[in-house]
Write a structure and sequence with these properties.
Blueprint: H1 12-40, H2 55-81, H3 94-121, H4 131-161, H5 163-172, H6 174-192, H7 226-229, E1 242-246, E2 252-254, H8 256-264, E3 269-276, E4 282-292, H9 302-306, E5 311-316, E6 319-320, E7 330-332, E8 347-350
Parallel strand pairs: 1-8
Antiparallel strand pairs: 1-2, 3-4, 4-5, 5-6, 5-7
The structure holds the ligand Nc1nc2c(c(=O)[nH]1)N[C@H]1C(S)=C(S)[C@@H](COP(=O)(O)O)O[C@H]1N2 and molybdenum atom.
The ligand Nc1nc2c(c(=O)[nH]1)N[C@H]1C(S)=C(S)[C@@H](COP(=O)(O)O)O[C@H]1N2 binds near residues 221, 326, 338 and 342.
C-alpha cells in the first residue's frame, strides 16, 4: 500500500489515553442510560426512590454531558487509530479477527448513539425512527463490542501506560501532548457552552443548548407547548374537569374552581422541585398544589405515590401554571424524569 502516516501526534500511548477516556465516558453514559430506562419502564424487581430529589437530575445530566464530551474524544480516538485500517494483512489470526470484527459495531454503534442523542436534544426525528428503542439497543451492542475490544487491547494499554515507558514517551512526543490537550480543550469548550442548561452557574454560557435555564414562560423552559400538544383550545374551557377514579372510596370530578378552593384551604402544599428532562436540561422551581401525595397513576411508581412532595400542581413560582407548563394542573414529583411529569392532567387513577 502506498499510504504512509507520518504525524508524530499519533502513537500507542496517545491512543491508550484516549481509549481510557472513551471507556470512562461511555461507562457513565451506559449506566445512567440503563437507570433512566429502568425508571421509565420498570421491571418488577426495580424500585426507583423519590429521594434524594436531585438524583435523576444528576444522573441524566451526567448522561447527556458525558455523551457530548464523547464527540471530540471519540473523533480523536478514531483519528489516532485509522491508519491501522491500511495495515496489511488485515487479519492476523483468530484473536485478531475477533478484535477486528468488533470494530464495526463499536464504531458504527457509537456514532449512531451520538447522532441519535443529538437529534433527540434538538427534537429532530429525521427518519422517523423510534428514538428510545434505537438508542437503548444500540447501547447494549456497543457495550458488548467494547468488552471484546478492551479484552483484546488490554496488554497494549497496560504497556503504554506503564510508568517507565510513559516517562520515556512523554519526553519524546510534544506533538502528542498537544494533540491530547487540544482534544481535552474541545471537550471542555463543548461542555462550557451546553452544561448551563442544567448547571446554574454556567447558565449564561449555554448558547448551544436548545433549552436554557431561566428562558421560557414563568422563567422555566418548555419541552412541548400547549399549541403543539393540541390542547390549547381546551384550556380555557369552563367545562374542564379533573376526574379522580380507580381504587378510591368514591370517584370525584373536580372543576378548576374546586381545585383552587382546595389549594386555598388547608390541603395546600408547596415544594421546590426540579424538572429534569431526559435531554439533559433541568431547573428547579417552586410548585404549589391542591393536595399532598396520595395520588397515583399508571406512570407513578409506589415511592413517588407515597411521597408528600408528589404534587398535582396548580401554581408555578407563585402564579397559576402557564398554558405551556400544563395549565390547569400538572403532576410534579421528586426525583422523577421530566417525561413522567405529566402536564394538562385530565384524570388521575389510583391503582
Ligand atoms: N402532557 C404532556 N406532559 C408532558 C410532556 C408532554 O409532551 N405532554 N412532556 C414532558 C417532558 S419530556 C418534560 S421534560 C416536562 C417539561 O415540563 P415543562 O415543559 O413544563 O418545563 O414535561 C413533561 N410533561
Ligand atoms: Mo423531557
Amino acid at each position: 500500500m502506498g499510504l504512509t502516516f507520518t504525524s508524530k501526534a499519533r502513537d500507542e500511548r496517545g491512543t491508550a489515553i484516549l481509549g481510557v477516556a472513551v471507556g470512562v465516558l461511555f461507562g457513565v453514559c451506559f449506566l445512567s442510560g440503563v437507570v433512566s430506562h429502568l425508571i421509565q419502564q420498570p421491571p418488577a424487581w426495580f424500585a426507583w426512590p423519590s429521594r434524594p430529589v436531585w438524583l435523576y437530575r444528576w444522573s441524566q445530566g451526567l448522561h447527556v454531558f458525558a455523551g457530548l464530551a464523547l464527540i471530540p474524544v471519540l473523533l480523536a480516538k478514531l483519528w489516532s487509530v485509522y491508519p491501522n485500517l491500511y495495515r496489511w494483512p488485515p487479519v492476523r489470526g483468530v484473536a485478531h479477527a475477533i478484535e477486528r470484527a468488533a470494530i464495526g459495531p463499536l464504531l458504527g454503534g457509537a456514532l449512531l448513539l451520538l447522532v441519535t442523542g443529538l437529534m433527540n436534544i434538538g427534537y429532530w426525528y429525521g427518519w422517523g425512527f423510534d428514538f428510545i428503542r434505537t438508542h437503548y439497543w444500540t447501547a447494549w451492542i456497543v457495550a458488548g463490542a467494547i468488552v471484546v475490544h478492551v479484552s483484546a487491547k488490554l496488554p497494549v494499554v497496560r504497556r503504554s501506560l506503564a510508568r517507565r515507558q510513559a516517562e520515556a514517551d512523554e519526553a519524546a512526543s510534544p506533538e502528542r501532548r498537544r494533540f491530547l490537550a487540544t482534544t481535552a480543550v474541545a471537550a471542555g469548550v463543548l461542555l462550557l457552552v451546553t452544561a448551563g442548561s442544567a448547571f446554574t452557574p454556567l447558565r449564561r454560557l449555554a448558547v448551544l443548548s436548545p433549552r436554557r435555564q431561566g428562558v421560557g414562560p414563568q422563567g422555566l423552559p418548555v419541552n412541548k407547548d400547549a399549541g403543539s400538544a393540541g390542547v390549547a383550545d381546551r384550556l380555557g374551557d369552563p367545562g374542564w374537569r379533573l376526574t379522580v377514579g380507580g381504587r378510591v372510596a368514591r370517584p370525584v370530578t373536580l372543576s378548576l374552581a374546586d381545585l383552587q378552593a382546595r389549594m386555598a384551604g388547608s390541603m395546600g402544599h408547596a415544594a421546590r422541585l426540579p424538572i429534569a428532562c431526559v435531554e439533559g436540561w433541568s431547573q428547579e422551581a417552586h410548585w404549589q398544589s391542591l393536595q399532598r401525595g396520595g395520588s397515583s397513576s399508571a406512570m407513578l411508581n409506589p415511592a413517588h405515590a407515597r411521597d408528600p412532595d408528589t404534587l398535582l400542581a396548580l401554581e408555578l413560582n407563585g402564579e397559576p401554571l402557564h398554558p405551556d407548563h400544563g395549565f390547569p394542573v400538572r403532576l410534579i414529583a421528586p426525583n422523577n424524569p421530566g417525561v413522567m411529569q405529566t402536564k394538562w392532567l385530565e384524570s388521575v387513577t389510583v391503582l
